[in-house]
Structures are given as structure tokens and as C-alpha cells.
Amino acid sequence: MANFSSVLLENAVNEFAKLPGIGKKTALRLVLHLLRQETQEVEQFGNTLIRLKNEVHYCRVCHNLSDTETCEICASPQRDTTIICVVENIKDVMAIENTHQYKGLYHVLGGVISPMDGIGPSDLEIQSLIERVEKENTQEIIMALPTTMEGDTTAFYISKRLKHYTLKISTIARGVAIGNDLEYTDEVTLGRSIVNRIAFEG
Length: 202
Hints:
Layout (H helix, E strand, L loop, with lengths): L6 H10 L7 H13 L2 H17 L1 E2 L6 E2 L5 H4 L4 E8 L2 H8 L6 E5 L18 H9 L4 E5 L4 H13 L6 E4 L15 H9 L2 E2 L3
Parallel strand pairs: 3-4, 3-5, 5-6
Antiparallel strand pairs: 1-2, 6-7
């Protein structure tokens, strides 16, 4: 790539290139686009990112992203509070919500157990899930974790932690292909997998 005529331009390109999936050429195109915009629009863009970083919270109940201490899903009186769907990350919540097939609550683990990556049970929001089951009127836990070895290991571990509680433990039907992340599964398949969930066999 050619040398930059401006250090400020080069710095901006380098920052954009740090984003996932953004190479130097795409970063340059984005920066040049911003330079063509009105100052007010660029300031609004920058301020939106700063507010995003400073003001977005993790829900104190389910660990989903939220503008308030408790997210809209946990606070909604329309949700079925007896069911908790356990997911790996926030993108999985979005994927399931897009199916419009699930009306219960969520619990975001923040990852899956992966010894190869140094991620153990204590690194995830598993203990807070156990505490929710103890305090809330939970009747069913749905394991909506990736259909991978790490996802299955995590589901197995959680099921063992929950075996002393009187509740139903189910998993999404295997309409989701083995090895797939939920966020890449089409909405119809994912929706059917939630509706047609099956008993979890640890």
C-alpha cells in the first residue's frame, strides 16, 4: 500500500484496520468516506461510539447487553420467567430473538468451557446461573449452546451442577448442524430447534 500523505490519515486507517474483517484497503475507503461527510455527522459518529463504550451495561440478571441495569427482556412482564435459555454469547440471544419463537428468559455465559484456550467453568457466568435457579421460579433450562465438543462439555458440566434441583433440562433439537454457531443458523431452522427442543441427556 502506498505511503500516506497525512499522518492523521494513516493513524485513522490503522485504527479502523484493527476491527475484525477490516483490511487496510477497506479501512482507507471508510476513512476517506468520513472525510467527505459534514463535520457534524462525523462528530455524531464518534460520540455514538464513545457513548457505546461508556454507557452500555451488562444486565445484572442475564448478562445480556443493556442500556439499563436490567435488560428489556428480563424486565418484560410478557416473558415466561419459568424458562431460562442458556447461550454462549450475546449474538446468540439476537439470533434466537429474531426467530420470534421463544418467549422465556436468557442467561449469557460469555463463552464455553475450553481447556485448550484456558477457559474453565470459573471464567464463565455459570455460578450466577445456579444462583438464579435457587432464587427464581425456574422450571426449565434450555441448553442452546454450540453443537461442538466445547459446547457439549459446557452443557454437560452445567447439567451436573443442576442435578440436585427439580427442573427440566432440555437442549435445542439437532436441526442445527453439528459444529455450527447459532448466529450462522437460519431463523426458520433455529426457531424450529427451540420449539422442538428435546430432553438433555448428559
